[in-house]
Amino acid sequence: MNRIDFRMPALGADMESGTLTQWLKKPGERIRRGEALAVVETTKGLIDIESFDAGVVEELLALPGATVAVGAVLARIASESPGATAAPAADATARGRAEPPSAAAPAAGPISIAPTPGAAAAPAPASRPRVSPAARHRAGELGIDLATVKGSGPGGLVRLEDIEPLAKAAAGPAPRVDMRAAIGAAMARSKREIPHYYLAHPIDFGAARDWLARFNASVLVAERLLDAVLIVKAVALAAAQIEGFNGYFRDGKFERSTAVNVGTAIALRGGGLVAPALLDADHKDLKTLMREFSDLVTRVRTGHMRSGEVTSATITLTSLGAEAVDALYPIINPPQVAIIGAGAVAERPWVSDGQLAIRPLMTLTLAADHRVTDGRAGSRFLHRIADLLTQPEKL
Amino acid sequence: MTTAALDPSQIAAHVMALLTGVAPDIDPAAVAPDRDLRDQFDFDSMDTLHFATAISSEFGIEVAEKEYARLASLKKACDFVQEKLRTRG
After folding, report:
1. Hey, is the C-beta of B53 within 8 angstroms of any chain A C-beta?
2. Residue B58's domain spans which residues?
C-alpha cells in the first residue's frame, strides 16, 4: 500500500491554477483508476479530474471554492498499486509515452489553501451536509457544490428537489471572457515561439462522402457517422505513419508520441473553443470513434470534460463546419507540433484523368512546426491523409 | 410513446423538450421558433445528428440524412414531425 499525492494537474499549456468546485469522493471511499475524484473550474470550463491510481481516498486537503496552484497536493490516496505515481490521470504519461504539457513544476508538498474571496465558507469534509443519494447523483451531474445547497429535508437533508432549481444556473454558459483571454494568450505564445509553416491541399471528398451516405443509409439514425470521424481516423493513421507530426516539442527537441491522441476542436455556444482528445484514435474503428466523439461533444458543452482528454492531445484537427469556408489556417496548440484544418466540402470544378468534372472538394491544411519538419514532410503527411480519405472503406 | 393522437401544440412541446435535451446549454426561453438553429445557437452537424436521433426515437419516425435540413428550426422540425406522423397514419 502506497500513500500517494493527488495533485492539481496542468490542464493547458498556460494554466497556473484552477478552482476546486467539488469533491466527488469523501475520505474512506474507494476510487478506481480513471475515476474522477474532483471537479475543477478552469478557463476551459469545468473539468473532472481523474485519479491515475486505484485505492482509498485518505484525506482531502482543499476546500471547494479554493484556487489551487498547478502541482499542489489536493488529496491523498492509499494506492493499491505498487510504485504508484502521484499525478492525476493523463493518458499519454500513464502509458509511458510522451508527457502532457506542464506549466509549472509540482509543489513539494501540501499547501495552505484559502477559499477565493466571495466563495461560500465550505464545511470541512467531516461536517459535510446530509444528502440523499438521488440529490448527490444529480448534483454531481450538474457540477453543483453540495456544501452550498440548503437542504429542505429533515435535519437539513439535501433532497433532489433542492437541486433541480439550481440546474438551470449550473447549465448556464461559463464565463467566456476568461476563455477568450486564455485562447489569446496560448495562441500568442504559439505564434511567438513556434515557426509555423502552412500547406494546403484540395482533395476530392467524393469517395468518402459516397461511402458515408451508403453506410448511414444502412444503419439507425443513432448509429450514423459524421464526416469528421473519417477525417479524425485518417489524420490519426497518417500521424502514426509519417514521422514528425505527432508529439510535443519541449526542452529544445521533438518528443515523438507513440500514442496518437487527436485533439478535436469543439466550439462552445456563445464563443470560445476547446480541443480535448480522442485517445488512441489510430487503433479505434469508426463506430467507436463516433461514439466517443459524440460523448465528448456532449460533455464539453455541459461542462464535463475529463482531465485525461484535456491534457493528452498529441495532434489537433479543426474544422469550421459544413457551411464554412473552403480553407482555414490554424495555429498550433503548444507543445504540439502540428494542426490539421479541414475546410467545408463544396462542389467545385475538378480535373481528373484529363476530364473536367464537378466534384465535392475539401481543402486540407496543415500548420506545422519548422523546428521539427519542413514542407516536404508536411506535403507527404497531407498526401497520406488524402490517400486514406479516398479509401474510406479501409479506415 | 403513443404519438398517433398528438395535436400540434403537444408535438411542439415534445420537440422543444428534445431540442433542449440534446443541447442543454441553450436557454429554452431564447429559442425563436422560426430562426435557424445554426444561426441562433451555432448548431453544428453533431447537434443536428443528436436532434435527428432524438426525434426519430421519440416519435418512431425515420429521418433520412437528406431530411436534416427539415430540422433546421424548431418550427420546421415540428412541421416535419407532423407530416411524418400524418403520412404514417
Report:
1. yes
2. 8-88
